[in-house]
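FORM 7B: Structural annotation worksheet

SECTION A. Query
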Amino acid sequence: MDRERSGRQLRLIGETVGIAEACGVGVWLRGGWAMDFFLGEVTRDHEDIDWFAWAADAAALTDGLLRSGWEPLPGPPPDQQIDFVKQGVESSFALLDRDRSGRVVVAGGPWAGESWPEGMLDAAEGRLGVLRCGIISAHAQIEIKRMTPVWVPGRPRRRKDAEDISRLRSALGLKA
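SECTION B. Predicted structure
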């Protein structure tokens, strides 16, 4: 495991949480770091940091990140996701909205209006050492990792996702 890279990513997670709080916006880790914050330990190397944020907060979050030295990256449509880099670490913020029924949905892009897993944002804060952060629920993490190859045709099942699902199910006391 690359401890230097993990340490840098953890510092930037902490910085991002501070920026979001200062801007009055909510952010939730998703992906591998969400799992690690749920489990309370770093389980593997991570390529990047994946987040969720409200589309309505994207401008304020972008402003805060830019003022703190993050640089924007090209990526998906900005109504769907905003991407940044700092110190060689990429952070992607998938944007959320609510539908008329109050369900959390994809904010923009080709899947605009599609529902995310029920209760996804209801998890308690995750923790890794002294660092605390909003995370998506473990059940939502499992569903997203399990369903992504179905939702995104051509996206292969990844070994790390299968391993993450196994870790999460075990931590939740669920059978394999």
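SECTION C. Observations
The longest strand covers residues 89-98. The chain has one domain: 3-137.

SECTION D. Sign-off
Analyst initials: ____
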